[in-house]
Amino acid sequence: NFSDDEITNAVIGICKKNKIKKSCYIRPFYFVGDYGINLHVTEKAPTNVAIFAFPLGDLFSKNGITAGVVSWRKFSDMSTPPQAKMGGNYLNSIIATQEAKRNGFDEAILLDHNGNVSEAPGENIFIVRNGQLITPSLASSALEGITRDAIIKIAKDLDIDMIERDVTRSELIISEEIFLTGTAAEITPIIKMDSKQIGTGKPGDITKKMMEIVVNMSLYEVQTAPSFWSSSSSLFILNFLFFIKSCLFNVCHIPILFLEKYSHGNFSPGSFFLNTDISECPKKFWVLILYFFTK
Questions:
Q1: Please, are residues 63 and 192 in contact by the beta-carbon 8 Å criterion?
Q2: Cα–Cα distance, 130 to 155 (Å, whole number)
Q3: pLDDT tens per residue across span 16-49
Q4: CA 149 to CA 164: how far, in whole Å?
Q5: What number of other Cβ atoms are within 10 A of residue 160's Cβ?
Q6: What distance in Å separates the CA atoms of residue 187 and residue 203, rounded to the nearest whole number?
Q7: Do 240 and 8 touch, CB atoms closer than 8 A?
Q8: Of 172, 241, 269, 273, which one is least surrounded by beta carbons within 10 A?
Q9: DSSP state of 110
């Protein structure tokens, strides 16, 4: 098995070795090594790790995509843990995506075992109704995604009425806005659901606000203050390494855009945003990326 430092150094090393200097996607895989075919895997089983990285642009069109509910249901805790980032769990996502593509949609929407909305194959889903921002609760078997959590916190900072609850299938087509969230998808608007136009057929106001905050921060146009870099560079590096570790060992899935709100010269390691109200902090956001270790 491997220590935190070994995994962290491997992640940085693969970026240096491949001279990655722009937005990329990194995924570590943990798998059981030489253990035969015995299914009784214990903590004593040897663990191997493989890590890959590749440049990644927009996964979906930022102008909006089409989506459709598929016949396959999202698996639940009754069969396999939905919060586990396990390779086998993605078979459900693959067959759902295949069905959506055959039906002419860009992306699939999966219902849970109760027939309520769960999520997309690789993204969480949010809807807007009557000014409220709504996302399925974790009881729907939705993944507790990092970007999902960030959107919930941003909404609260912006005093948007944010609700986690059951979402019925029929609510999708009467929503004013729908968008997906994920590490690769970032914020992706849905402008047609089950062939029915959503809202005006363009990204709505709340969707655009979230995209403006999370997506439209350029990797190479980070606004910085000279005093920050001169006095806090060591803190920046230590906190960034800490966050890589927390991502690796808490969710085994690393987003390349690490967002931190800068407040009074301090960063909050391991979280997306500080728990202070946005109005109390300078309205600047910092993009922390592996680029700083490879330039």
A1: no
A2: 15
A3: 999 888 878 888 888 888 878 888 888 888 888 9
A4: 11
A5: 18
A6: 10
A7: no
A8: 269
A9: E
Closest CA relative to residue 271, chosen from 259, 279, 285: 259
Please compute, for residue 173, the number of CA atoms within 13 A of its CA located in the half-sphere on the CB side. 8
How far apart are alpha carbons 253 and 146 in whole angstroms? 9
Lowest model confidence (mean pLDDT) among 4-8, 23-27, 150-154, 180-184:
23-27
Is 62 marked active-site? no
| pTM value > 0.85 | no
Q: Which two tokens stand for residue 66?
A: 């089409």
> Dihedrals φ, ψ of 247, to 5°?
-65, -45
CA distance 239 to 266: 10
Q: Which two tokens stand for residue 150?
A: 């960030």
Tokens of 203: 């990204």
CA gap 136, 143 in Å, rounded: 10
**DSSP of 221-235, one letter per residue?**
-----HHHHHHHHHH
User: How much of the chain is helix, strand and coil, in % rounded to 5?
Assistant: 30, 25, 40
Catalytic: which of 85, 156, 209, 245? 85
